[in-house]
Amino acid sequence: MKLKYILLSGLICLGTALHAQVLPYKNSQLPIEDRVQDLIGRMTVEEKVGQLSKLLGWEMYVKDAAGIRVSDKLKDAVKKQHIGLLWATLRADPWTQKTLENGLSPEEAARATNAIQRYMVDSTRLGIPLLLSEEAPHGHMAIGATVFPTAIGQASTWNPDLIAQMARVIATETYAVGGKNGYGPVLDLARDPRWSRTEESYGEDPYLVGQMGKAMVKGFQGDVAGAEEKIIATLKHFVAYGVPEGGHNGGSVSVGERALLQSFLPPFEQAVKAGAGSIMTAYNSVDGVPCSSNPWLLDEILRQQWGFKGFVVSDLLSISGLTGSHATAEDAVDAAKQSIEAGLDVDLSGSGFGDNLLKAVKSGQVDMQYVDRAVARLLYQKFALGLFERPYVDEHLVVQKVATSEHTAMARQVAREAIVLLKNESNLLPLSKTLSRIAVIGPNAHNIYNQLGDYTAPQPEEKIKTVLEGVRAAVSTNTYVDYVKGCAIRDTSATDVASAVKAAELADVAIVVLGGSSARDFKTSYQATGAANVDSAAPSISDMESGEGFDRATLDLLGDQLPLLQAIVATGKPVVLVTIMGRPLILNWAAEHVPAIVNAWYPGQEGGIAIANVLFGDYNPAGRLPISVARSVGQLPVYYNHLKPKHHDYVEIDAKPLYAFGYGLSYTEFAYGNLQVAVIEGDDDFRCSIRFDVKNVGDRDGEEVAQIYVMDEVSSVVTPVKQLKRFSRQSIKKGDTQSFIFELTKEDLKLWGAGRKWKTEKGRFKVLVGPASDNTPLTGMFELEKDYIF
After folding, report:
1. Which residues does 329 contact at the CB level (< 8 Å), separation at least 6?
2. pLDDT grade, residue 780 (50/70/90)?
3. Average pLDDT, integer, range 588-614
4. CA-to-CA distance for 182 and 443, rounded, in angstroms?
5. Structure pTM?
6. Taking a C-beta distance cutoff of 8 angstroms, is the pair 620, 700 a contact?
7. Topology (CATH level 3) of domain 419-625
8. pLDDT at residue 140 above 80?
9. Which residues form the signal peptide (predicted)?
10. Which residue numbers are catalytic?
11. Which of 347, 369, 604, 622 could pair with 149 in a Cys bridge, judged by C-beta atoms 3.0 to 4.6 Å apart?
12. In a 3-state reduction of DSSP, which class is residue 607?
């Protein structure tokens, strides 16, 4: 009897081993395509449809005295919906109601994602791991993660190599706690700063945005698919989301085909060709067709023309928006049908596809091929990431991977390089570290959340370095640093200008820190999409005037900030204005009356130290504006590369912005010279070499951001008055000369012709070289003798 039992047990073991061997999708030695097809062939229609649902992840774990474990909500979602992805599992903020107390530390986060993946592997029929997507535009949006400057600040560095290094840090931290997909970069052109999400963008220019986006993708994903400490990027928001009419977030846009192809789509194309694994549709419509159900965008452009191999995910509830805000689908089933047939693969919410798509399939309204296509695209990324082989993370390594001293140093470097010196009359800056008394004044001088931006998790106070703390750390022990808040960003009920004036009168210099805030609070209500509700009748007024949902009708400093600044200037003491903000605010009065202005955007956790480094000369600023600063909302749009003709002045003011795209000062001076432009034409392409020298003629070492703009003198369709084509940030020691060499090809000068084909046309092109779009001391010319067709 015992022998029979042994033989039976052996046969069972052998059978199990043989069964495992005949499951090709579990065989990592097979091509990914074969594994995908094998797995799809084993899935039921319910499992396939469920695989396309991405639910809100922060509801899927429980943290209590007993420890961390999966929630009943996860078990129910897996059982009933067969879900394939989670979003923002580790997110913490007032919308999610996750705080420093009930949220997850990095070590707890790793335990939570391991528990979730273990449940998926061990307790489901096919053991398909979840893809965990996390917000990661300027650091992983999780407690304990390193917080970098927001994207508008990142773009101000004009240093894609640095941003790629930053992205590698974000990927490392996200991967360490179980995230395998980072939301970012945001590639929307921001050409209306009233739009609440300007801070999330890289600015107004397609070339600069494209270079930054490509750097983020490379940093996130690396060069080898599935490498450890790498995550796939999700490009946002496809497309033209950043130019809503009236600045209304998610509103309709008025953009033609040529503008889409030549300005709004190129940054996405650059990032796709850099290997981006995912892309998110925008809430808006384009020419009357919602982006989430637009086959021209999602199939013809994205896949057929660009060769995109990843998956397309909706923005939160955007499939439902077809029946709601857009009213282009008669019901939820129709919305699911339109979206999946157009090429949208994954539903962020779980309510757009789910039962609606299942009904559409079972009733014959949607062919199964569309579902299989979407599932294959998602599974391919899961296999490429190595999720089936490595579904878990090493909980013991988290402390070595998250918020390390090296990552903190990187956050400080990005913040320093992002700072833009807007004005420095009579060389007031840098300040002496041995001044007797300094007054630090303003609502953003010592408020940690006002310098972090939207999409930031709560962080321990001691982790964030404010301007006040930075100043105190920078000066000598004999310098007394006084601090007075003076006023809030918006609330005028507790303004104390008198105390601020007294502090300034006693000081040798006043550092006034003003601007805006994207700091969410637990008193604010939120929409289902996570955007904040603006409530002008609320009994208490938060500082928040920027961030998703907080669109502006004006761009003035709010509350009593300008009266505070005016009162400080009236003391006659030297004043330095530091702006911390998420969008370019109007600074006309300050530009006329304040001798020194430094802009830091939202500089992240190391912002205070970085700002102090600049104020006291430990770092020579070289940041450049990635977006124009308007004089008035009446000028909008005021981006530099508008189509011809040249703008004429208004009755009240001139047409030029207060500060132009590409502008930024230094503590040293640079001289441009020796421009050489040469063209060699070939059968299918040309090479235009542009060479020039920049000499540091000042008395400090510094960095210069040299910029090349091109103007097409005569073209078959209207082109911009000028367009950025190349740039480079280089260190130049005092007295030294640096040569800059660039090359242009037909790709750089192509246009969407009247015949609806791409071509680079023959003719004359003007080359403009200098440190800003409105300051190009070198001018050259070249001519093409023939057209180049694509």
Report:
1. 293, 322, 323, 335, 337, 338
2. very high
3. 98
4. 32
5. 0.96
6. yes
7. Rossmann fold (3.40.50)
8. yes
9. 1-20
10. 315
11. 604
12. helix
